[in-house]
Design brief:
alpha+beta, 7-stranded mixed β-sheet, 26 helices, about 20% strand
C-alpha cells in the first residue's frame, strides 16, 4: 500500500517531524510501513495525543468526593445522589467549522453527544460557545449563519435541546473562528460504561454508519495545523453528519448498556477506527486484531489507511463477549443500524491490522496512545511594551470617560445595544430549547436550568471565557473565566459541582504562544482549587491562528451545578415593584479587557481588574445559602458591561425599571461599567433586608442597598466623592445620572445582534434546513 502525497518525505506530508519519525522507529524497532505511518500521524497529532499540553494538564485538580470518572474518559462524570450522576464535556470543532461552517459545527455537536452517551448517559442538553470576527464583515456573517444552522440543524433533529452558551465577536477570530460545544447527560451510576477493551477473546463490534472517505484526517489533521490561504482546499476532510443516524445510535447504545451487553464502548471520532481500537486496548492492557475486510464501507476501492483513519460520523465500537453477540446484533437490527464484528481482543498488547492472511500493520497499542511522544515546549513571555506615558511626559486623566455630549445613559444604550452584549434571540430562536421537556431556563440567561424528572432536583450549566482579559494577562483571564462561570451557576442557587474546559490557543511551537497556554492552565488550576471544583476533563485546541495572527488566548470554561430543590431556583429578572435592589461585593479598579474599554477607549496606564479567589468562593457560598433560605427575589452577576448593564438586562427581561443610587468610589466609568469580579446584583423583599445583610456580613462580603425596583425607567444616580473628578475639569458631565426608558433599553438590546449581522430582527430566522 502506498499513500499518494506531494513531493517530499511521507512522514512530513502526514504532519510528523523528523524527530517524531525517529521516535516511531524507536518504539517499533524498525521502519514503519505506510499504513503504520498514517496511523501514527493521526494518533500523534495534537488533537489526539495532547503531546504539547499533557505535562501541564497533569497539574490540574481532578479528584473530588463525588467524581466518578475524570480526565482520560470520554466525559467527566459526577455523582448527584439517589444513584444518579451527570456526565459533561466541552470540546472544540474550530478548524473544520472554519473550512465548512455548517458541517463543522454539526459534527461538533454529534461528536460531543457521542462522548456523553458512550459513558452510559442520556444526553439532555447542548451549549455552544462561539467566537467570530467583526460582525459586519461578509466572511463573519457567512460563518455565523453556517455555524448557527449547523448547531441547530443537528441538535434539533437529534432531539437534544441547545439551552445556552456564549457568542463573542472580536477581530482576533476573523480568520479562525472558535466553535466549542458542551454536552450534558444524565445516567444511573450502575450504568457507567468505560472505554476499554477487557477480556482476550472478546469481540470488537463496529456499529452505526458505514465507513467512507469523508473526514479522512478531519479533526486530527485540521486541528493540528495553522490556517493559510490553502485552507479552503481542506473542505473534503470535514466530516459529514447525519443527526437521524445519531438518534438511532443513542437509543441502541443506551439499550445495549442497560441490558449489560457490552464490556466497553468507544465512539469513533478523530482518527476513526485507529483511535477507537488503540485507546480501548491500551486502557485495558490488551491488544486488538482488526479484520480490515470486515469493516462495512460505503465506497469501493478504499485503501487500508483510508479505512483505518476515516472519520466518518455516527459510528461506535463495542467490546462484546462472544455469547452476547447475537443479542447485540438483534438490538442493532431492531434500530436499523448496521453492525459487524471487525476484530477480537488479544492478550499481546498489539494493534494488528489484517486483510485475509496478510498482516498490514503491527503496533503496540501503548505506542499509539499512552506512550505517544510528549513535547516539552519552550515557554517565554512576550516582550513588554510600555503602555504608560514615557517618563517626563504629561499625564492625562486616566478614567477613559466620554467627553461632553455623551452622557452615561447614552453609553449604556451603546453597550447593551452592541453585538457582544445584546440579546441572543436571533441565535437561540433557531435552536429547539425545550425538546425533551427538561428545560426550565435557557437561551438568554447566563445559566441553563434543567429539571431531573422524578426528583426535586435540577442541573444548572454555564459556559464562559475571558479572552479579552487574557490578552493582557492569560493567568487572570483563565481564573476570571472559572470564577464567572461558577458564579453564573451559583446565582441560580445551585452548588457548582465541577469544571470542564476547552483551551483554545495558537501555535505551541512558538514560545510566546505556549507561555500564554501555560499561564492559562496555571490560572485555571488555581481558580479551581480555590473554589473546590474538580476538572473532570476537556479539550485542547492549538494552532488557532492564520497569516494575520493568533486568536486571543481563550480558555473556555464549562461548569455544571446541582439544585437540590428546583423550587428554590433564583432567576435574573426583576420580580416585583417595591423590591430592594442590592449590590453584594464592591467595584475595583481596572477597565482593560472590558466592553466599556472597547467602546470608549482605554487609558494608557490601565489594567484588568484583579480577582480575590477567597472572596469569590465566599460570594458563591453566600448565593447558595441565600437561595436556600429564600432571601433572594432575583440575582444577576455583574460581568460584561458592569453594574449598569447588569441592571439593564434585569429590566429587559422583566419590563420593570428601577431607581438606584450608586456611590462612586473611583471614577464613574469604573463603578458603572467596570467588570471587576465577585459582584452580584440581587433583589429582595424589604422585610428580608436585615437577614440578607447579616448573611453577607457573615460571609465577609460588602453589601449595599442601591434602591428599589419599579417604574418604566432605569435611573442610576451617582453620588459620593468619586462622582466628580479630573474629567469634570475637561467639561464632561461625569456626575450626570443614567436615566433611560426601559422600552429604549429593551429596543437597543433586542435589535443589537441582528442589526450587527445585517439581519431583519422582526423576521423569523431562516430554517436550519436552508443552507
Amino acid at each position: 500500500m502506498t499513500i499518494a502525497t506531494p513531493a517530499g518525505p511521507l512522514h512530513r506530508a502526514l504532519g510528523l517531524t523528523d524527530a517524531e519519525l525517529a521516535a516511531i522507529h524507536e518504539r517499533l524497532g524498525r521502519d514503519p510501513n505506510d499504513l503504520e505511518l498514517a496511523m501514527f500521524s493521526v494518533m500523534w497529532s495534537e488533537h489526539c495525543s495532547y503531546k504539547s499540553s499533557k505535562p501541564l494538564l497533569g497539574t490540574l485538580p481532578t479528584t473530588g468526593e463525588d467524581v466518578v470518572a475524570g480526565p482520560g474518559e470520554n466525559a467527566g462524570v459526577i455523582a448527584i445522589g439517589d444513584g444518579l450522576a451527570v456526565a459533561f464535556k466541552l470540546e472544540s470543532h474550530n478548524h473544520p467549522s472554519a473550512v465548512e461552517p455548517y458541517q463543522g459545527a454539526a459534527t461538533g455537536v454529534g461528536g460531543i453527544l457521542r462522548d456523553i452517551f458512550t459513558m452510559g448517559a442520556r444526553p439532555i442538553a447542548v451549549l455552544d460557545a462561539l467566537k467570530f470576527g467583526d460582525p459586519s464583515a461578509p466572511r463573519t456573517r457567512h460563518l455565523v449563519r453556517g455555524v448557527v444552522r449547523g448547531v441547530g440543524g443537528y441538535g434539533n433533529c437529534v432531539g437534544v435541546p441547545t439551552v445556552g452558551g456564549e457568542l463573542v465577536f472580536d477581530a482576533s477570530y476573523a480568520e479562525n473562528p472558535l466553535v466549542n460545544v458542551m454536552a450534558i447527560g444524565l445516567l444511573e451510576e450502575r450504568h457507567l460504561t468505560r472505554a476499554a477493551a477487557p477480556g482476550p477473546g472478546n469481540l470488537a463490534v463496529l456499529y452505526g454508519s458505514t465507513t467512507g472517505r469523508d473526514g479522512i484526517g478531519g479533526a486530527s489533521v485540521l486541528a493540528s495545523a495553522s490556517f493559510d490561504d490553502a485552507s479552503a482546499a481542506k473542505r473534503p476532510t470535514v466530516q459529514v453528519g447525519d443527526p437521524f443516524a445519531e438518534k438511532l445510535l443513542i437509543e441502541a447504545s443506551l439499550e445495549l448498556i442497560g441490558g449489560g451487553l457490552v464490556e466497553g464502548l468507544q465512539d469513533l471520532g478523530a482518527a476513526g477506527i485507529t483511535c477507537a481500537v488503540s485507546e480501548t486496548a491500551d486502557r485495558a492492557g490488551t491488544g486488538i486484531v482488526v479484520d480490515l475486510d470486515a469493516v462495512p464501507r460505503r465506497e469501493t476501492g478504499m485503501a487500508p489507511f483510508e479505512v483505518m483513519i476515516s472519520e466518518s460520523q455516527e459510528r461506535m465500537l463495542a467490546i462484546v463477549r462472544p455469547e452476547r453477540l447475537a443479542a447485540v446484533l438483534e438490538v442493532c437490527g431492531r434500530w436499523a443500524i448496521p453492525a459487524a464484528v471487525i476484530g477480537r481482543v488479544t492478550d499481546d498488547g498489539l494493534i494488528r491490522v489484517v486483510s485475509g492472511e496478510e498482516e498490514l500493520a503491527r503496533i503496540p497499542a501503548a505506542a499509539l496512545t499512552s506512550e505517544a511522544i510528549v513535547h516539552h515546549r519552550l515557554s517565554s513571555p512576550p516582550a513588554r511594551t510600555r503602555s504608560a506615558p514615557a517618563p517626563g511626559a504629561p499625564e492625562e486623566p486616566g478614567d477613559g470617560l466620554p467627553e461632553r455630549g455623551m452622557d452615561p445613559g447614552a453609553v449604556l444604550i451603546a453597550l447593551i445595544g452592541s453585538a457582544n452584549l445584546g440579546s441572543r434571540a436571533w441565535v437561540t430562536t433557531q435552536y429547539d430549547e425545550t425538546v425533551g421537556s427538561d428545560t426550565v431556563e435557557a437561551g438568554e440567561r447566563s445559566a441553563a436550568v434543567l429539571r431531573i424528572k422524578g426528583t426535586t432536583k435540577a442541573l444548572v450549566a454555564a459556559t464562559d471565557a475571558q479572552a479579552q482579559v487574557a490578552v493582557h494577562d492569560p493567568y487572570l483571564g483563565a481564573a476570571l473565566a472559572v470564577a464567572e462561570c461558577a458564579r453564573n451557576v451559583a446565582v441560580t442557587g445551585a452548588r457548582p459541582l465541577g469544571v470542564t474546559n476547552c483551551l483554545n490557543f495558537g501555535n505551541p511551537e512558538r514560545p510566546e504562544a505556549f507561555w500564554r497556554f501555560a499561564e492559562s492552565v496555571r490560572g485555571l488550576g488555581d481558580a479551581c482549587r480555590a473554589l473546590g471544583l474538580p476538572v473532570t476533563g476537556g479539550n485542547v485546541s492549538f494552532y488557532n491562528e492564520s497569516p494575520v495572527g493568533a486568536i486571543a488566548p481563550t480558555a473556555q470554561i464549562g461548569v455544571v451545578g446541582l439544585l437540590d430543590d428546583i423550587g428554590l431556583r433564583v432567576g435574573p429578572a426583576f420580580r416585583a415593584a417595591g423590591d430592594l435592589a442590592v449590590l453584594v461585593g464592591e467595584a475595583g479598579p481596572g477597565l482593560a479587557g472590558s466592553a466599556y474599554a472597547a467602546l470608549a477607549g482605554l487609558a494608557s496606564d490601565d489594567r484588568p481588574p484583579s480577582l480575590d479567589l477567597g472572596r469569590e468562593a465566599a460570594l458563591q457560598r453566600f448565593l447558595v445559602t441565600a437561595a436556600r433560605e429564600r432571601l433572594l427575589a432575583s440575582a444577576q452577576d455583574v460581568s460584561g458591561g458592569g453594574l449598569a448593564v447588569a441592571a439593564a438586562e434585569c429590566t429587559a427581561w422583566s419590563g420593570l425599571g428601577a431607581r438606584l443610587q450608586l456611590r462612586v468610589g473611583m471614577a464613574p466609568a469604573v463603578d458603572l461599567f467596570g467588570e471587576s469580579p465577585s459582584r452580584v446584583l440581587v433583589t429582595a423583599a424589604p422585610d428580608d433586608w436585615e437577614r440578607l445583610a447579616g448573611l453577607a456580613a457573615a460571609h465577609g462580603l460588602p453589601v449595599r442597598r442601591l434602591g428599589t425596583v419599579g417604574g418604566d425607567r432605569l435611573v442610576i444616580e451617582l453620588v459620593g466623592d468619586g462622582a466628580t473628578g479630573a474629567a469634570e475639569g475637561r467639561g464632561a458631565g461625569v456626575a450626570d445620572a443614567v436615566d433611560v426608558a426601559v422600552a429604549d433599553l429593551h429596543h437597543a438590546w433586542r435589535y443589537a445582534l441582528p442589526r450587527a449581522l445585517g439581519e431583519d430582527a422582526d423576521a423569523a430566522p431562516l430554517a436550519v434546513e436552508e443552507r
